[in-house]
Amino acid sequence: MKATTHSEVTIHSLIGRAGGEPIWWLAVIAIITAAGITLISLETEFLLRAQELNLWLPTGVYWKTLMQYPGGGVSWLGTYLTQYFYYPWLGVGILCTLWLAICGMMAYVFRLRGVKLLLTLLVPAALLACLTQTGYWIFYQKLQGHLFVPTVGVTIAMLVLVAQRLMDSIMRGNMAVCTRAAWIAIVCIGGYPLCGAWALAATGMLALYDMGTALRRDTNASGRAALSSRSEAMLLAVTAALLIAAVPQVYYQQVFEMTQRNLVYVAAMPSFRYGQDSYATYRLPYYAIIAAFTITLAVTFWPKRLALRMKPAVQAVLTGLLLVCAAVGVKSAWYRDINFTKELAMNRAIEELDWERVLRIARDGSSTVKPTRQMVLYKNLALFRMGRAGDEMFTYPEGAMQQNVPWRVHMTQVGGKLIYYHYGKENFCYRWCMEDGVEFGWKAETLKFMARTSLLNKEWVVAKKYLDLLAKTTFHRRWAARYAALLRTPEAFDLPALEASVQAGKPLMNDDAMKEFAPIMHLMTYPDRLDGDNTLVEMYLLQTFARGNGDDPLFQEMTLICALYMKDIPLFWPRFMKYASMHPDIHMPRHYQEAAYLYGHLEDKVDISHMPFDQSVRDSYERFMRFNTQCGPMTEEQKAVAFYPQFGDTFYYFYFLVRNQKTN
Amino acid sequence: MTSNKKRRWPLWAVAALIIFHIFVFAGTGLAIFGGSAKVPDTFDDSDSLPVIYPDYADVTVPVNIAPLHFHIDHDGAATDFVTHFGAGSEEWTFGGEAVCPGSKAWEAMKQAALTADGCIQVQVYAKRSGTWLRYRCFGITVSTDSIDPYISYRLISPSYVTYEDLTINQRCLENFDESLIYGNMINSDEANGQCINCHHSQYGNPDRIQFHVRQYRGGTVIAYDGKVRKVNLKTDSTLSAGVYPAWHPTQPWIVYSTNLTGQSFHTRDVQKIEVQDTKSNLIFYDIETNTVTPVTRDSTELDCFPHWSPDGRYVYYVSAHWERLDTTALDYELITHYKQLHYNLYRMAFDASTRTFGPRELLYDAASRNRSVTLPRISPDGRWLMFTEGKFGVFHIWHNDADLYMMDLTKAQPMAEGPHPVLYDADHLPAGLLPETANNVEREAAADSLREALGAQHPLPESIYPIAELNSADVESYHSWSHDGKWVVFSSRRTDGNFTRPFIAHHDGNGHFSRPFELPQQEPEYHRHFLRSYNIPEFMLGPVTIRPQEFAATIKDEATNATLSMP
């Protein structure tokens, strides 16, 4: 009869047990919703990029690849869920739902009611910090699906505990002990290949839960019953400990042949190592997850006879304090960096070919922080694509801020591929995609670049391979279909044929494709050679373009721009002259005039007397030189500050006062 | 009013539900594996072959090969597919675009074919716009010549300098079982990367294998009759540790090339990478005494890719001649002249009693033809030498013009070495060939044409021919003979130009091959989704039984230094 009673467990009764006053539940829901809204409002760019730097494929190869390592299952789920950030609200919605489910399961398992329900928020707070601390790790983290993995791992661990409690409510006596032991073994042995360290954590929590339950029983039992209960719990705890210690080692010996022995206990946990260095502070939110569970376990299972007598108000204050601590922790872990956000936003704008938006972001003066080189390159690319580089390239803030992280960010691993792609260095874009794919795992973003560079290189079959893979994804299939359509007109990637088709009024590409590909094809008009960039994107572009020599108008202007940027006078003059002869009917852009006027005066090797410089160019040069005389004794740094308001938008300022722009 | 009384499912309903699910799953299974398919009664005929991947049309397969699963490619207009297999008097029919007969049906097909004309006939039907279309039938010939049961290969993304997740694998050709011999991730981490390469066995013996570990915990790992050791083959008098290995057919001796290798990147060419040696020699390594003996040491000769003749009397290898132009650093000089590096085919006689090598003999002057030879591999009967030839260089897997060639050693004779060809490049063209105003692109093109024209003046020797049956428009490179010389496995990038896949072909013993087939996979489209290349496919007579963890434990130890023995 008793068994029948316990088997009558319904969802309703579960909610009832987990329940408590609805007001506290409303508070939990409200706080999680607020966290979600904050996440969306502050991190849209981050979330959008996160799903681009993620790849989930419904193929056997993909599953097999992840399952080579312990914890491949959570990684698979993590990548599956990360793709939903394609619509940030949807991804965040899923995340918040999972957090809410975690709270619900915690309330049920740990029998939290009233104000104590708010304690369940400590875990989602730690999970939020795991996500928001990511910053540039988004490019470097090797654990696939890392943004969702902690949430998935904790959810699975809580499901294990929920199942345990359900079984507890059904089983009694020796049967219950056997079931508990079996469940611990199943979770550890069966869970480890799928969930890695999260399965080990779940096993540990099961043991602690059993011990806690036994301890609590002790308060109502005495003598042999209590002793028996304690012994059983101890036995289970020892079993769990042995399993936790042994199972990864056995799997290492027998199954997982690609995992280092010393990493078997942290499988499916993100590694915050880059190169020779490890960054331990990033592990704090993970310790916070453990702390949150420890607090919850302590609150739940602290023996009543040892309990401090606390009034509800005191309990509320303490809970509130913990939540405030959690909020402060989340805020301090949250990676907020204006240049990071701008880099992400500019990157997306370039992907959308919204060049004006790129410039708006570059112009945004809401912060006095100098831009990174990557931002400068994005801005220059936008100006070039809009045909305004010659007039405006020095009118934007220059800078070489290092990315705000404790390691050196290489542009090749962040935005370099996009830059190479648009500057017609398709092999180098492809190369860094491949390098990244090998080192950090395949991503939708890299496959997209590889597909497009293969199209531009006329490698149709391999382009189709990448597009077919993207077509298997949930959200990038439309993108893939758009580019796959181009495979039907391969002749469109032959520049003369494309231009002839445009002149004939029957363009081989649609407007969007034309906008994207035609300028790149113009920049690809250089001969092949063997080369290497030494991971320095900007230097490589400057060196190769400035020394390049081509008859394509866009390519030729690029050589002039780079010669200008390198402040290389011998390279500048032939490119300037060629530009002038190739564009006899257009007004010479201001910066080109400034450079010619300045170099003409500096070296006197080229006769500039016959050149029709704008009066404003001559005037600004004269003013610059006069001001320079006035500021005679100033150091260069002082001059850089003093000259900026008047001359910060001139080539003269760039030539004399912008130095040591260390690129990465 | 709701009732508290629980609704219970009657037993019969539960049973019915279970049976229903069994039928659903069984039905799905049958649909997937095609057991329920039936050849359409009415259809139109098409003259064309169906487009299938992998392309198994009219190939010859060994009797012990795994099932040939394939995918019927279509443009989306086809809605249903039926594939009919016939061998002798037996028939099998499968539905769906993924045609996966499975091992049981496949074995039956092969046996039925062998008892009849040796051929499995395959007929594909596709339903388009409600009408069935029957494609032209193709055959799969089953050869009674069985194939060595295993191949080993390295799986690597066709990458440039990074090498995460490198594995040396072995695959049973009789089924789809694949396992790891060793993977680098078991012994490397963020801070300490490890490359693994150049796996090689002693004529297919899985108990005698070697591979290299580079960088972290580096050394050459040699498994010899159950004993695993790690040795450091670099000595003060050799260029590097051992690189490309050649195991003596019977003795515990390995000849290696030692190489100083670099790579640079094409800015426009789709071949993307050029891997070059700036120096390379040959060394002889005795496993038992752990001694290294230099074999060649001429700094103007780049010796590479050694290979023993099956009788152990010769070492075949390739070599390029390069004399400094005295321009700049050697590596830069070679990068700028990469198209002028041409490797010839040589051999040296070996005296096993004294363990000494005779003078080199030129077998094929590829340089005079403006061509470059790599990877000589001799058939077990000693008659056929297969090699890879391309326009220039030594690393043909990145040269899309690279093809497989065969030399009939019964017709080949050592030849006298002539003068080294003149090295024409964009900066060194005959006077008057181009106007003074010619730009770099024009000069480069002229140099290419001139080299080709000069090369064309030298016909291919009679003993050599390109293997038309095996070659494609894209790269063919590494190749390995089965132990009886009936089969070859070779790497090719013919499917997409970027990812290397192993292909297998039957050899008739007279220098002719059947149409090659791609390594079968359980999932027909596996290779389409797979972003790694198969590197160095080599036959093995069985699996390597030493586990990766055992290799890992040895690799963690310090390498034993080889001692130098001067000839």
Helix content class of chain A: 55-70%
Number of distinct beta strands of chain B: 36
Q: Supply the CATH superfamily name of the largest domain in chain B.
A: TolB, C-terminal domain
Radius of gyration of chain B, whole Å: 28 Å
Number of helices of chain B: 6
Uncertain parts of chain B? 1-9, 24-35
Mean pLDDT of chain B: 91
| Protein chains sharing the most extensive interface | A-B, 52 and 50 residues
Q: State the CATH class of the largest domain in chain B.
A: Mainly Beta
Distance between the termini of chain A: 73 Å
Characterize the main sheet of chain A: 2 strands, antiparallel
Q: What is the fold-level CATH name, i.e. the topology of the largest domain in chain B?
A: Neuraminidase
Shape of chain A: elongated
Low-confidence stretches of chain A: 1-19
Could you tell me the mean pLDDT of chain A? 91
From the N-terminal CA to the C-terminal CA of chain B, the straight-line distance is 102 Å
The CATH architecture of the largest domain in chain B would be: 6 Propeller
Structural class of chain A: mainly alpha
Give me the side-by-side strand order of the main sheet of chain A. Answer: 1-2
If you had to describe this structure to a student in words, what would you say it looks like?
The complex is a heterodimer of chains A (664) and B (567). Chain A is 67% helix and 1% strand. Chain A contains 32 helices and three strands. Chain A has helices at 2-7, 11-18, 22-52, 60-66, 72-82, 88-110, 122-132, 137-140, 149-170, 173-195, 197-220, 223-254, 284-301, 312-333, 338-351, 355-363, 373-385, 389-392, 416-422, 426-440, 444-456, 460-471, 477-484, 495-503, 511-523, 537-546, 553-565, 569-582, 590-603, 615-630, 636-647, 651-657, and strands at 273-274, 277-278, 530-531. In chain A, a hairpin with a 2-residue loop joins strand 1 and strand 2 (277-278). The model of chain A is unreliable at 1-19 (pLDDT under 50). The longest helix of chain B has 23 residues, at 11-33. Chain B has two domains: 44-143, Immunoglobulins (Immunoglobulin-like, Sandwich), CATH 2.60.40.10; 150-563, 6 Propeller (Neuraminidase). Chain B is globular, with a radius of gyration of 28 Å. In chain B, the strands form eight sheets. In chain B, strands 1, 3, 5, 6, 8, 9 and 10 form a seven-stranded mixed beta sheet that branches. A five-stranded mixed beta sheet of chain B has the order 14-15-16-17-35, covered by helices on one side. A five-stranded mixed beta sheet of chain B has the order 18-19-20-21-36. In chain B, strand 15 (205-215) and strand 16 (219-224) form a beta hairpin. At the A-B interface, helix 4, strand 1, helix 20, helix 22 and strand 3 of A face strand 19, helix 4 and helix 5 of B. Strand 3 (530-531) of chain A pairs antiparallel with strand 19 of chain B.
